[in-house]
Amino acid sequence: MNILVQGAGALGSYFGGRMLEAGENVSFFVREKRANQLRDEGLKIVSPEGNFECKNVNVFTQTDEVENVDVIVLTVKGYHLDQVIPQVETIVHQTGAYVLPLLNGMEHLEKLQKAVGKEKVIGGFASIIATLNEQGHVVHTSGSSALKFGSLHPEQTDVCDKFEDLHKRVKTNLLKEENILKHMWKKYIFITAFSGVTSATQLPAGFIANVEATFEVAKKVIYEMSMLAEKEGIELTNQEIENMVKRLKKFPEEATSSMHQDLRKGLPIEVEHFHGGALRLARKHEVTIPVIETLYGVLKPYEHGKPYEVRK
Length: 312
Description:
Layout: E1 2-6, H1 10-21, E2 25-29, H2 32-41, E3 43-46, E4 52-54, E5 59-60, E6 71-74, H3 81-95, E7 98-101, H4 107-116, E8 123-127, E9 130-132, E10 138-140, E11 146-150, H5 157-165, E12 173-176, H6 180-201, H7 206-210, H8 212-231, H9 238-247, H10 258-264, H11 271-285, H12 290-299
């Protein structure tokens, strides 16, 4: 398969690198600054799943350079989606590629489907805790990783089967799911709680597990998000919901969310795509989600990076 990874942050670099390591024809579509870094430093992964380094990475920065693509793996942050949709639209038009977005939340699906057609947008998400260091190398800190995907349209069956075949050759998990929307919602539910609380407290997972009041906040976020999922037609059992609650206490004490890592670096955060998206769904269904609304208010000032420091 010919795979184009659009966005080469920690997520795109990791999964793109793993597919490159397995011998797939992988290229990256990135902004000029990241392109120069990849040309100078190469792509390097430091990971419990095995280290990998490639010095010569195929990089594009202009849409007219791209051809012969089967799948675009879209790994940009949610706040860059509107900016890159015209690029995705152009690449799909000139190559016929399918789009596999690995963005957080759910709102991106409708936006992409409107741009390139429902038959072209595959469902998917990624599970990994990783960041880029100063050299632009991937530092993978969770013990494992997974990219889950699944068909949202009958025309996607063949390309999903081909993507599934990669699982046998890569040093990560590429897993096809029959009910991908449900799995995407379960990720959205959990990460809204975990990211929200670690970022609002500016503390790692151990404080969720060991401080009962903090754990209660995260648990209530899961309950509020599960209610929204049900309103959207996603059936979750009580056991599935409680398993997500229990998972909050299973992280290593020092583990944290990507949102918290971005906040600590003074970078933009995806509060609008996690908590803001949930609030828009709540308004749509005329329900209230007070805990999520509070976290949204606490984190919103950090949306575009470190807030302006008030002069004394």
